[in-house]
Specification:
- With about 90 residues, this protein is mainly α.
- Helices cover about 90% and strands about 0% of the residues.
- The protein has one domain.
């Protein structure tokens, strides 16, 4: 009886340990996904800010207002090309 109880206890311990590992792996995977989403969100925001600042700076340098949409497109393309070359 004691041996049987010991075996059952060991089996239960192994099952609980396996479930705990699975839950930990799931939590880690969810965290990685969240980190990736936040990183992409931050990168998009940074790109937007760089484009806005570049349009503003260029407008001040030449002393006139620029067509923001067209220049933003050019800036986005330049940033994308620069990322490819990095």
């Amino acid at each position: 009886m004691l041996d049987q109880a010991t075996r059952m206890g060991e089996t239960l311990r192994q099952e609980l340990e396996q479930k705990a590992r699975q839950q930990a792996d799931q939590i880690i995977e969810q965290a990685r996904g969240e980190i990736d989403r936040e990183r992409l969100k931050a990168l998009q925001e940074l790109r937007r800010q760089v484009a806005d600042l570049t349009v503003l700076a260029a407008g001040r340098v030449i002393g006139e207002s620029l067509d923001g949409q067209r220049h933003r497109e050019l800036i986005e393309r330049t940033i994308s090309e620069a990322e490819i070359n990095v």
